[in-house]
Design a protein that fits this description.
The structure is a homodimer. By secondary structure, chain A is an alpha/beta fold. The longest helix of chain A is centred in the first third of the chain and has 17 residues, at about 35-50. Chain A is built from seven helices and six strands; from the N terminus they run αααβββαβαβαβα. In chain A, α1 (about 5-15) crosses α2 (about 20-35). At the A-B interface, α1, α2, α3 and α4 of A face α1, α2, α3 and α4 of B.
Chain lengths: ~200, ~200
């Protein structure tokens, strides 16, 4: 249907998450239909962002500055480290305005079959960070997926000899969820971890 | 949550159809997280496409060549003109491999309240095209929306004194649709335009 540069644009747009062939085609046609300057603004701001953002040397979060705003903010509590899979998860937690500690981005979750081991998830850097600060709690804010669970278990085991509280996000029924449509794994876990209504 | 160039990227991505704030944020974070060369490819191919595509002087379709592949293809039947709102609709019809005539892109639908009149929908150009070729049929392949209906009625009225068949796409229940979830307007029209099962 398309050819040449437009076909290439469709293929390139398709590499993005949640963008399938049809959406990519719609976006590509949109981009060549609109005012040239508007489309060029999109291209330019991709270039600008890609060139401006780098991983914070301390916590790996993607940031325009290094150290990032979180690491350089002395009002944040460096004794509590929230370990997340990626920058987006850190931003989602930050948006709650409830966490005032520091972040640490793994960038990957452990997946030995895919060759992703402790080095790939930046474990040596995390270990060094934990040792250099007087950390009292590590919150492992990782997805309760197979890879997330492996990573949680691995990280917890690495710090078990230290006087540090290792926590993870609670698991159970999501608010607004429906027991009828909940997996038996989630339901069984929710039953096991039930808590007092008065809590 | 974001600032500087990344915030600008989010705002620019948000200008695209079907891209809301959350998707724009996800895409922006994706773009700064992946290999720099992959992200730059996206930016470059937007630039390349925007610079390569222009409106065909004859039919207004967006094309790398002028005249476009449809207008320059002498094997196509120039006596049948399919009038569409935009390039995407022309491509969607072309994908059916059933239409072998020419296209004409309006770029807009009539909307007097928004200041979109006959000139804005390229009517003078269409009129000239119809007069220069021995057109036997004009297919008004426009959406059955308020603007589409106005445009269909306007265009039909402009050609009614000519010996040209003016047709429009059939209206009725969509295949796979459900009468229960169909608007009364669609249902009433489907009843009125009912046809013999043997047809």
């Amino acid at each position: 249907m398309f050819n040449g540069v437009l076909d290439e644009l469709v293929n390139n747009l398709k590499t993005m998450p949640g963008i399938g062939l049809k959406t990519a085609q719609r976006l590509a046609l949109h981009l060549i239909s609109i005012e040239k300057t508007t489309a060029m603004k999109i291209a330019d701001s991709i270039t600008d962002s890609v060139n401006s953002y780098k991983h914070c040397a301390q916590c790996n979060i993607l940031s325009e500055t290094d150290p990032c705003n979180f690491c350089s903010d002395s009002s944040r509590n460096s004794q509590v480290i929230c370990v997340v899979e990626n920058t987006q998860d850190a931003y989602l937690i930050e948006k709650l305005h409830e966490f005032k500690g520091r972040y640490f981005v793994l960038n990957e979750l452990l997946s030995p079959l895919d060759g992703i081991g402790p080095d790939e998830i930046n474990f040596p850097k995390l270990y060094k960070l934990i040792n250099s600060e007087e950390v009292v709690e590590i919150i492992l804010a990782l997805n309760p997926s197979a890879e997330g669970e492996s990573t949680i278990n691995y990280l917890a085991s690495q710090f078990e000899d230290k006087p540090i509280k290792i926590t993870r996000l609670s698991t159970g029924l999501p608010f607004g969820g429906d027991i009828e449509y909940t997996s038996s794994l989630t339901l069984s876990n929710a039953l096991k971890r039930r808590y007092l209504v008065s809590d």
